[in-house]
Amino acid sequence: MAGVLALAPAAAHPLPVEAHARLVASRPAPGEMLGLAPGAVVLEFSEPVSAALSRASVEAPGGRRFGGSPAGDREIRVELTTNAPGVYGVDWVAISAVDGHALRGGFRFGVKVRPDATVQSGSPSPPDLAAAAGHVLEYTGLLFGVGGLLLRALARRRPRLPWASPPLAAGLATALVGGLTGLVAGVLSLDSGVSWPTALAYLGSSAGRTRLVGLAAEAAALAFWAARLPVAVGVALLAAIASLAAAGHAASAAPPLAVPADTVHLLAAGAWAGCILVLALLRPPGGWLGPEGRRLLSRFWPVALGSFGAVAATGMVRAGQELRGLADLWSTSYGRLLLLKSAVVLAMAGLSALAWRRRLLAPRLEAALAVAVLGATALLAAQPLPPVSLSQAPALGAEEASQGLPREGDLTLGDHAGSYLVGLTLRPGRPGPNTAWIFVLPVEGELAAAGVPVRVVAAGAGRVADACGLTCRRVDLDLQGAGDLRVEVGGSEGGSATFSLPRLPAAAGQSLLALEQARMHRLRTYRMDETLGSGRVTVHTSYESEAPDRLHVSVEGGEEIVAVGPVRYAREGQAAPWTRAPSVALRTPFFDWDFGPARAPRVVAAGDGGGGAEQVVSFFEGGSTTPTWYRLWVDGDGLTRQAEMMAQGHFMVQHYADFDASFTIETPGT
């Protein structure tokens, strides 16, 4: 009891609304401000998610919604074909592939604006609460069944104790009702509408099949008890408990013995806590201190001692598999619940010790604590594991990833080959021997780039590049002057990208960029036409910008947006009505490459682009998670006439005109 009181503050600590398949990372991050929209929004979860039932969507500033589905065991990806500035809303529903639990949530990120960084987790729905209640009933019924069978066997020893006849039928029926409630509530909590395809997809998943097996075992146990086949009841209970363990955290744990350890843990808990539940319902002649009660208790003590030892040992083993360290015991909701459960178990052990010494016999109090332990166990089953497997998963190291990206002093250019982003970096970027570092990234992500062949053709000779990481390739070349270099990317959505190399070494571009930034940010108005491609689709968008906070965006054949200060107006097509909504004010002028710092800027071309003498500056921004290559065509006044941006799934060309032209962006309807 002292342990329970000591850990009461941990129990009172607010527990966040968490469940299986908790969101542990996203790209972009909640509240992040980007210079341009990402080619894909990526959500990473703590456990494998169901490919058939999990999904996510992104609402763009104009109201257009993009949908996505799982792209890997623990990942949901939403591809975007827009670069509209404003706030983007992300909503997701993740269904754990381990136990079928549903969790909903959302967050926002911004393009050229900074939204709040709040991550919204869905509150428990009535089906979620019903599922939790069903799990408590199921645990209670199964452990009661194990304890009842054990006490029945102990009572049948000679001399027999006919009064020790546990109501096993009620316990087995409780387990069946709880299992059925949890299964039905699991289907209803999917948040995708109650339909036969949804239900069949859930039941056909690994978690659904495991729960069906457990439900069948619980029904069989009840039927066997009605037929007076106690041995068969025991086998059915073993199958039900094993299914319960296989549908929980142990199924996703790396050690192969996690499910057997959980099964032994639950069986031992039934032999100890389940027996205590049954003892609380029995009435021995003369009471528990009478000869009949003492006889049954004397038979139970050795079993209780061994079972408690098994519960403690397997519990410690499982905790060691699920927690990264002692800090997780108080820094995670899972750890705090585990501490509370351990405290109640210790209190039960103390009462059992007092009963063994005949100093205090309180089976009802012990039974109440046993129910508390079962409730904590059910809550633990609904809590997320600390992301042990995620932290141990092989990932592209920082040093390895940076090898394919440019450094200061390099010459770097970006393009695309099919749907692959291709970044070419020459090091040292001088005549003679060079190492060509090639960064390749499809819209599907880094893992999809593994093993993709890359061939480099220079001066008529082709060579296969060596892999230096998931997205990194390299090849040694001897370059003497200007010319074309072609990068060929294999795969079904690959292609080739041709780079026009300048004379080596290329001139530094820092001063040209500084001039461009100063001149472009003094503009009062300008217009821009943008062509956005992903290698699969192409979107044409027109922009009108007026300082300090007005913007008009028109997508060809799609939405139209007018932003005036903190108010946004949007409509789907010319014939649709306008909608008005508050938004984060957008400051203009604001350009995609304003986020900097620019890495390795070099002047790679010069000439007359139709707007007078122009110089082309190439540079890189971002890192291994948001790599972006830019090329700007800058005239003699420092004005950018054309810009190219190459990012994952976003290959953009922008043409700028009407600098400081006389126009005003009006509120729609005025």
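Next protein, fold it too.
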Amino acid sequence: MLASKYYIRTLREAPSEAEIPSHRLLLRGGFIRPVGAGIFNWLPLGQRVLQHVEQVIREEMNAAGAHEVLMPVLHPRELWEKSGRWDTFAPTPLRVTDRAEREFCLGPTHEEVITDLVAMDLDSYRDIPTTLYQIQVKFRDELRPRGGLIRCKEFIMKDAYSFDRDREGLDASYDAMYDAYVRIFERLNLPVVTVEAEAGSIGGTDTREFMLLSENGEDTVYMCDSCDYASNAECATAQIPEPVEPAGESKRELVDTPDAKTVEQVTGMLDTTPDRLVKTLMFKSDSGFVAALVRGDRALNEFKLARHIHGDELRMASDAEVQDLTGARVGFAGPVGLPDDVRIIADHEIRAMSDFVTGANQDDRHFLNVNVGADFEVDDWADLREACHGDFCAHCDSGELQAKRCIELAHVFKLGTKYSSALDATFRDADGNEDPCIMGCYGVGVSRIVAALVEQYHDDDGIMWPREAAPFGATILLLSPDDEELRAIADKLYSDLQGCGVEVLYDERDASPGVKFAEADLIGCPVRVVVGRTTRNEGKVELRRRVDGHEELADVADAVEAVMALLESC
């Protein structure tokens, strides 16, 4: 590609709102341009990177036996009502109404559509197993898009769905997709870690995420410093402390705490510490009200609570509901004296506490010296709290959990029959019985991978693309375009490299060497070839590997072979 004929629009400075390296460099390098918050145009350089990433994904998905389809962006409300997600998917999908007053959402994911498709076509057990995938635009109504391509309203995803006869078949399909993902990230030189994960609005079991550790990531994973345990923050578990002996009789004391509603206010007024207080958080579930108890210095993990009660619907109780249940304003709830139909679920850490502080279910009052057994009973013990940096690992004897920032790049689930049962995706088995398909779901954030590559591979001068994703494998800089001898050398090198299958950006523009060098580093092609003074004086071209700055000279006659060798090393 001749640079003089190509749409390259670099910037000297990135806009002030671009706060992380990938956002700044993709804007400066002319890969993307903003349209609105979380919405981007892909310029020719960015489109080439995107297509190369997609090609790697397609090759590995096809090699794993999956078949590519393309599904619509508009999803009828009726499909999402069948699955029960029209009103429950979070964040709420973007919705539109057509001229006939029919309602649609812009697809944030495609479980309903793919299941409906397969339901039309499947008949016999001989038709499965099968795995279908697409590379498609998705829409999610993010309140605060950030980080350029890291969190967008509109983004590109590869989503795949497997359909099997039984759980053993699902295990095999899941393993095939997992292995394909490993190969994808190996080819893209992204050192991901796989962690336990929460299924969220999609649902499912055996959920794993592929994470890239990055200080600019918006997710947190906890990794043990002694064993191979790793989990995202939503489901990370810590070691359970040893329980204390239960108190023989009640010693609780009622004290006034006027207007002290927060942990900080209560502990300050009572001259104690947050780890001596138990928070009581009231929730409404499908089956009734729940009081969740965690230590005062801990945060409740609502995913863990929802998983424990097996309820699809879980929300914080309203102020009015808390007042009705406890007889007190929000901030003064406690486990002592709650109605019998309120289910009390306590975090395991409460077992290790005695003589602690709780709300008294009276306005402006708390209890001191409260104890489980002597003052109230717990219906269920569970792991309810969010893990913290430095917690002891629950999976080995000596490790501690280390919190690390990361970027989520892929997610795999075992869905089971949640969608196939709801949308009648069934098959007849060998005995003629009709059974729902067993499904799996596998997603890769394609456009997010582009940002992750830049976060992983950049320096102060620009991007350092791995070969598989780079917009061009090599760039040729002709430093004296008016020199006919040098131009002939550069032209031939350009032609010969293309003949070897190398995609080349040939900068033959009438621009200063400084501009050409700066743009080459900013755009970040793996190998730079300079045809200039050294070529004229010594008959050699200058080669530079972008990722580590390695430089060497090559005779003009050997230049193609030298470039190919450098590319192989990238």
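About the second fold: Residues 253-382 form a domain with the YbaK protein fold (CATH 3.90.960.10).
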